[in-house]
Amino acid sequence: ATKTNARAPSQLAGTIRTDAGEPFTPSHANKAGKRYRYYVSRPANGEAHAVNRRWRIPAGELEGLVVRAVRDLLTDARELRAILTAAGIAEIEQQAALDRAEQWAHQQPTMPEAERRAALRAMLARIVIAEAGITITLAIPALLKTVAIDVHGAAADATHDITMPGPSLAASRP
Predict the structure, then answer these.
(1) Which residues does residue 41 pair with via DSSP β-bridges, in sequence order?
(2) What is the spatial distance between Cα 79 and Cα 91, in angstroms, rounded to a whole number?
(3) Which residue, of 8, 17, 146, 155, has the greatest Cβ tally within 10 A?
């Protein structure tokens, strides 16, 4: 769970895992009066870390990367059209959805914080961190709802993966 009274709540808490299935939890360190937020991998049920890997990823970097990836998807007409088609959205509705998606993506930075966080949390099914890269899995029904499309045609468990190869973050393995 995230703390609602924190200055910068950990908006991705509960959605991040390693490729070995280990969850990440929010953490922080204070140095010279400045607070540094991280997501840290934790072994499940007190077990040892898989393959002796432990991740500590700066929270702001990961959150920014996820927001940019979602915004990029919402402004990529070709990719979004493929998602809409796969979800069974009629061709006649697709252009309006593309327009709303682009509008939402551009308005997102100025939206009220709570509204923006709620929409992002609803869209995120999971995030998997691996040596090879990061996979952000989005829930299609929530994505469609964000762009004001009736989700009657989309399967409740339909997802879309955004994959970013390579070390995209300044992660450390203490």
Answers:
(1) 24
(2) 14
(3) 146
Map tokens 């997102």 to a residue: 108
**pLDDT of res. 117:** 87
Distance (Å) of CA 108 to CA 55, 115, 120: 29, 9, 10
Contact criterion met (CB below 8 Å) for 94 and 100: no
Check: CB of residue 10 under 8 Å from CB of residue 39.
yes
3-state secondary structure of 115: helix
Strands 24-31 and 56-58: unpaired
Q: What pLDDT is stored for residue 153 in this prediction?
A: 55
pTM beyond 0.85: no
Q: Which amino acid is at 157?
A: D
